[in-house]
Automatic annotation (TrEMBL):
Residues 132-187 form the PAC domain. This is Transcriptional regulator containing GAF, AAA-type ATPase, and DNA binding domains. Gene3D superfamilies: 1.10.8.60, Homeodomain-like, P-loop containing nucleotide triphosphate hydrolases, PAS domain. Residues 59-131 form the PAS domain. It comes from Syntrophus aciditrophicus (strain SB). InterPro entries: AAA+_ATPase, AAA_lid_NorR, Homeodomain-like_sf, HTH_Fis, P-loop_NTPase, PAC, PAS, PAS-assoc_C. It comes from the Bacteria. Residues 32-62, 178-209 form a coiled coil. One of its GO terms (molecular function) is sequence-specific DNA binding. Residues 1-23 are annotated as: Disordered. CDD domains: AAA, PAS. Residues 219-448 form the Sigma-54 factor interaction domain. Keywords: ATP-binding, Coiled coil, DNA-binding, Nucleotide-binding, Transcription, Transcription regulation.
Length: 535
């Protein structure tokens, strides 16, 4: 009875439909209603299974559709590297159909490059050894027709619980076109880079050309000498090499030193100018290296020296030949070690300073006379640049004259439009012992005295004609027996006589000569110039 009640209850609410599938009790024959009911339950169950099967089939079809239509070839290998699955896309990509490859090993198909085969085996071994179950690599493969394609392979291995290989699933993507495009792109980039480099080089060249035309910023001149000087400066500018400018007074050593600094990587850092001739000998040391508070009587505050100021920048030691012997050793140490001490301090200070020096003295001559250290000279003379005197680059004179006349016409409110050829000729033939500086002064005076639109000179300019007196060569000696010092002496004497031996002030000789009064005094001392009547 109990069983009957159960059977009767089959299909009722809350009961699993599967209970209807349980065998009938063998104790009695099922009733017709029971059988009918059971058939209905079975029909219902069967329909459910069919639906599930249909759904699974649909999923499988979808999966196959995706596998076959995805741009990926799907290949499966067993643990003996025999192909056990070969998707439609694999057929499309590699050309063999599934029947041709099934059961074949990789090496039985001419499918991968010999080297790559080795690579594949290595990769599989490596995967197994490291127990990594997937990897990606790029391989060249052959198609059935022998053509070569490049494939990106995604591999994963299936291992059993003991870590033994069961199968390898691989998916391959044909990246031949991508590689070709990438190679083309790389080639195009190379070409672009080459063109860019070329353009840059042309640009630099054109900029140089423009600078040549413009006279290198503030530097005026187009003579070969100026061009080669500019070239040398540009060569040496990027390094930290010490540069020594040599040349007569007023040739432009200072202007070229500034140009060098501007052309270097230090252009945004300080350019510190030290005129060694204008500093009294007893002050040079503290000016250059600084001093501590109380270093000597009267030094009430700490003073930063010019070398510290120039840190990471450039220091320009003008008239280096004027540095007293005692200080030259200290200078040598800074150049060699980048290190010095402030006066009154035992602590060394380290600086990174590019040194440019200039001299209008013949330093070798100074060494012979025991006034300049040879070791310092060698240190300074690593990259010497000689600035020739103006009389040796006469071609620059008209350019300079025009530029200065224009400049002073503006500042003195003049309207000078013409420079008579005769005047230009005399300016070109003058020896210019004071070089560009003297030319500037002569031009300023000329502009001031010119009343109309035509330039007139304020003085007789051929007082020292080129051919009869001075001909300087690069070592500052003259060819005619008269030395440059004689010419300089004469030039200074002329200015002193003109000012009644007044050195300083607005009407002093120092201003006429565009020199610092102390520099003029140092020159006078050097050249033995004394006011008549003084001891
Ligand atoms: N090529 C040039 N173009 C324009 N100006 C120049 C040129 N050469 C020199 N000068 C000008 O001439 C003057 C003297 O030049 P600078 O002071 O550079 O000469 P220097 O050789 O250093 O002289 P010193 O040895 O007396 O110090 C400056 O006013 C400078 O601007």
């Amino acid at each position: 009875m109990q069983k009957e009640a159960e059977i009767k209850g089959t299909g009722t609410q809350g009961q699993s439909p599967l209970s209807a599938l349980e065998p009938f009790s063998m104790n009695r024959k099922p009733t017709y209603e029971e059988l009918e009911k059971r058939v209905r339950v079975l029909e219902k169950e069967s329909l459910k299974y069919t639906q599930t099967e249909n759904r699974l089939n649909e999923t499988l079809q979808r999966l196959n559709f995706h596998i076959d239509n995805a741009p990926l070839a799907v290949v499966e290998f067993n643990n003996r590297f025999q192909i056990t699955y070969w998707s439609n896309q694999a057929e499309k990509i590699f050309g063999w159909n599934a029947e041709e490859v099934m059961g074949k090993r990789i090496d039985q198909l001419k499918w991968v490059y010999k080297d790559d085969m080795h690579h594949v085996a290595e990769l599989s071994a490596e995967m197994l050894a490291s127990r990594r179950t997937s990897n990606i690599h790029i391989n060249r493969n052959y198609r059935k027709d022998g053509s070569v394609i490049i494939c990106e392979w995604y591999n994963s291995v299936l291992l059993n619980s003991k870590g033994k290989l069961i199968s390898i699933q691989s998916m391959a993507r044909d990246v031949t076109e991508q590689h070709r495009l990438e190679a083309e792109l790389a080639k195009a980039f190379d070409e672009i880079k080459r063109l860019k480099d070329q353009l840059e080089a042309e640009n630099i060249y054109l900029r140089d050309e423009i600078k040549l035309k413009e006279g290198f910023g503030e530097i005026i001149g187009a003579s070969d000498v100026i061009k080669s000087t500019i070239h040398k400066i540009r060569q040496v500018a990027p390094s930290k090499t010490t540069v020594l400018f040599a040349g007569e007074t007023g040739t432009g050593k200072g202007i070229f030193a500034r140009f060098l600094h501007r052309e270097s990587d230090r252009r945004d850092r300080p350019f510190v100018n030290v005129n060694c001739a204008s500093l009294p000998a007893n002050l040079i040391e503290s000016e250059l290296f600084g001093r501590e508070k109380g270093a000597y009587t009267g030094s009430t505050a700490r003073q930063i020296g010019r070398f510290e100021l120039a840190n990471n920048g450039t220091i320009f030691l003008d008239e280096i030949g004027e540095v007293p012997m005692e200080l030259q050793a200290k200078l040598l140490k800074v150049i060699e070690e980048g290190e010095f001490e402030r006066i009154g301090s035992p602590h060394p200070i380290k600086v990174d300073v590019r040194i440019i020096a200039a001299t209008n003295r013949d330093l070798q001559e100074e060494i012979k006379k025991g006034r300049f250290r040879q070791d310092l000279y060698f240190r300074l003379n690593i990259f010497p640049i000689n600035i020739p005197p103006l009389r040796d680059r006469k071609g620059d004179i008209p350019l300079l004259v025009k530029a200065f006349v224009a400049k002073f016409s503006k500042s003195h409110n003049r309207d000078i439009k013409r420079i008579p050829a005769k005047i230009m000729e005399s300016l070109k033939n003058y020896a210019w012992p004071g070089n560009v500086r003297e030319l500037i002064n002569v031009m300023e005076r000329a502009v001031i005295v010119s009343e109309g639109s035509e330039l007139q000179l304020a003085e007789k300019i051929d007082a020292i004609p080129l051919d009869s007196s001075i001909r300087g060569d690069e070592s500052f000696s003259t060819g005619s027996g008269e030395t440059l010092a004689d010419a300089e002496r004469e030039h200074i004497l002329k200015a002193l006589q003109q000012t009644g031996w007044r050195i300083e002030g607005p009407r002093g000789a120092a201003q006429i000569l565009d020199l610092q009064p102390n520099t003029l005094r140092a020159r006078m001392k050097k050249l033995g110039i004394k006011r008549p009547g003084t001891p």
